[in-house]
Amino acid sequence: MDIDSTLIDEEVIDLLGDASGHGEQIAAITERAMRGEIDFREALRERVALLKGLPDTVFHDVIGRTHFTTGALDLIDECHRRGWTVGVVSGGFHEVADELVRRAHIDRCLANGLVVRDGVLTGQIDGDIVTKESKLAALTAWAAEDGVPMDRTIAIGDGANDIPMILAAGTGIAFCAKPIVRQTAPHSITTRDLRLALPIIDGASAEGAR
């Protein structure tokens, strides 16, 4: 699943934006990118540039402002009870995502990194940018590594860059998503409770077994 606005209620880049004093500007870019109106790579570079000069202590502060979406931990626990692997794919940042992954006992994580020098953010991204293509590639690779056929995979997200993985998964779910995602996804949840994914997953499994 996606992290920002899916696993958690917040958009981490927007929280970092608040700390930088560019909150409204960054939030506006985020909204356009999630709606698919602008290229995600360029949108991310533009937003990260506005974070230049922030101390790296901001990550601890931002983690403290995040909240797991209602039902997220219950969904993850149920998936593990069933013997499933849970992964997250995010256009957000490892500096925050890794702690969320640890707390939620998530098995795999793909996210961006931020360049920090002498305890200060440089406004640059470390390594390749996570895109809709790399989210799909992670789903495909993790499924192959675990020996799970694609028709038995599940993908959940809310933004335009989640669409390819949602369509490729055996069960693809738009979660409180942008209009373009709701219109495209096979399934949609409009209430912020990730436990509502379970009836969809079970229904799809039953349908596939017929």
Automatic annotation (TrEMBL):
Active site positions: 2, 4
MF GO annotations: L-phosphoserine phosphatase activity; magnesium ion binding
Highest taxon of the lineage: Bacteria
GO terms classed as biological process: L-serine biosynthetic process
InterPro entries per UniProt: HAD-like_SerB (IPR050582), HAD-like_sf (IPR036412), HAD_sf (IPR023214), PSP (IPR004469)
Coiled coil: none
EC number: 3.1.3.3
Entry's Gene Ontology cellular component terms: cytoplasm
Signal peptide: none
Keywords, comma-separated and alphabetical: Amino-acid biosynthesis, Hydrolase, Magnesium, Metal-binding, Serine biosynthesis
EC primary class: hydrolase
Name listed for the protein in its UniProt record: phosphoserine phosphatase
